[in-house]
Amino acid sequence: MEVFMFRAIAHRLYLFCGYAAGFFLAAIAVATLWQIVARQMGRAVETTELSGFCLAASTFLALAYTFVNGGHVRVGIVPQLFSGGISRGFEIWCCAIGILITGYAAYHMTLFTLETYRFGELSPGMMAIPLWIPQSAVAFGLGVMCIGIIEQAGLVLSGRAADYETNIDSTAE
């Protein structure tokens, strides 16, 4: 029962991050439109830095949602070459490597974000945005991705098929 609750909460978190990623993509479009309209009216508006921050947030927040729903590019040729036990072992090994890499990245990005916050660093552009704000989206996205890989590794360890094996977007096939 606890595992089901964890999975339900985790999938809500992935969905939230997916919607947040979509929001930041829309924010890029709005910022670009704002810049175009302002230039047509004779005003110079610089949104490149803001758009870059939105792109970073969108990219990293979308990681877990895309992974769990089978949207990441996977090379499945090696597991297909072997039978059940070896294929499952290879899948577990891949998940373990993914957990180590994303966990390491999330940990160090979080430390970096906290350091940036403590020093009060600002972006070098005209807007002077505190850098911890966009960095926190990157750190959070990496942390959620690590949770997603852990959850999917648990499915593989229990002998069930991982959610990422089924791509919900049929256009990828």
UniProtKB/TrEMBL annotation:
- Described purpose of this protein according to its UniProt entry: Part of the tripartite ATP-independent periplasmic (TRAP) transport system.
Q: Where in the cell is it found?
A: Cell inner membrane
Tagged with keyword Transmembrane helix: yes
> Under which name does UniProt file this protein?
TRAP transporter small permease protein
Q: Does the keyword Protein biosynthesis apply?
A: no
Residue ranges of domain Tripartite ATP-independent periplasmic transporters DctQ component in the record: 28-153
Write down the membrane topology: Multi-pass membrane protein
Q: Which residues cross the membrane?
A: 12-38, 50-68, 89-107, 127-150
**UniProt-listed InterPro entries:** DctQ, TRAP_DctQ
Relate the assembly described in the record: The complex comprises the extracytoplasmic solute receptor protein and the two transmembrane proteins.
Q: Name one GO molecular function term.
A: transmembrane transporter activity
Keywords assigned by UniProt, alphabetized: Cell inner membrane, Cell membrane, Membrane, Transmembrane, Transmembrane helix, Transport
- Entry's family note: Belongs to the TRAP transporter small permease family.
- Return the GO cellular component terms, semicolon-separated: plasma membrane
For this protein's source organism, the top of the classification is: Bacteria, Pseudomonadati, Pseudomonadota, Alphaproteobacteria, Rhodobacterales
Task: Give the record's GO biological process terms.
Answer: C4-dicarboxylate transport
